[in-house]
Amino acid sequence: MAKIGVDIAEARSSLVSGDLVAIPTETVYGLAANALNEEAVAKIFKAKNRPSFDPLIVHTNSIEKVERFVEAIPEKARLLVSEFWPGPVTILLKKKAIVPDLVTSGLDSVAVRIPSHPLTLELLSQIDFPLAAPSANPFGYVSPTAAEHVEAQLGEKVAYILNGGECRVGVESTIVSFLEGNPRVLRLGGLAVEKIEEVIGSVEVNQHSSSRPTAPGMLKSHYAPGKSIELINDFDWNKEIDFSQIGTIVFNKPLKDIPLENQVILSHTSNLDEAARNLFSALRRLDQEAKIKTILVEFVPNEGLGRAINDRIKRATANKK
Ligand code: TXA
Ligand code: MG
Hints:
Helices cover 29% and strands 17% of the residues. By secondary structure, the protein is an alpha/beta fold. A hairpin with a 6-residue loop joins strand 2 and strand 3. Bound molecules: threonylcarbamoyladenylate and magnesium ion.
């Protein structure tokens, strides 16, 4: 099993040796490697069983460092990141040649982010290379929001897990592309669209797929647990049902008839930030409970982080019964 702890020197030396380290961020845990070392990056794809056509986000800790990896940073992108970095937003820009093709799946653009977590920021300040890091889950599965989630699923495959506790935001970063004229949100995430628009004006939002629909984080069916999962509204309540085998993920109040201990209430106070923080661990918990055979989920109000929550719910329930 991987070592798990808060030893930044150990995490650093594993990364310098070209090994994988799980890192905490405010959104979800990342599976990190030296982004400039192709052999190290290849280990990420292998450990996650991730197809090589799905590009990675590059993480660093200052705008000066970002400028080493990207061509010009447009004014609106600069405005956005000066307001929200370190934080849950990733920007997509034209890449410089120094970024290996493996990181970007051969695209001429690169996704970059300065994450907000004190341990990871300290680690990033102590290395002279950026970290390529997708979410630290097997491909297609729910993203990890605690070190224990990483340990359970990828523990054999990483040299070290930097334990930063539970993720404060709980859904992945919002990805904004500055490749064309207008900024475009490719993935809804931990920074609400409303907040982005307050700073850079109106943006376009891709609803179901990226400009590159082959990128799996944006694929219709993703973030899915292994069990049967469907929307509460689509569930056939007329068939014979064993209520003890049903688990629910509900916004602010439980469903009647279903045992309370089978139900996860995302936020008793209807707070969408709290709901986002709880979503992935709820999916994980119900997926692991042996007696539960079917997971039912409901949408939350479609505003603020609710849009990212609903996006993940749509993907988790797509093509699954
Ligand atoms: O919050 C997050 O963003 C987390 C933490 C660890 O930073 N990372 C994360 O990475 O969610 P990942 O690999 O699970 O999702 C990144 C998404 C992928 O769907 C990928 O297709 C997209 O970003 N992406 C990365 N580079 C891209 C590019 N050059 N063009 C289009 N999409 C890109
Ligand atoms: Mg992911």
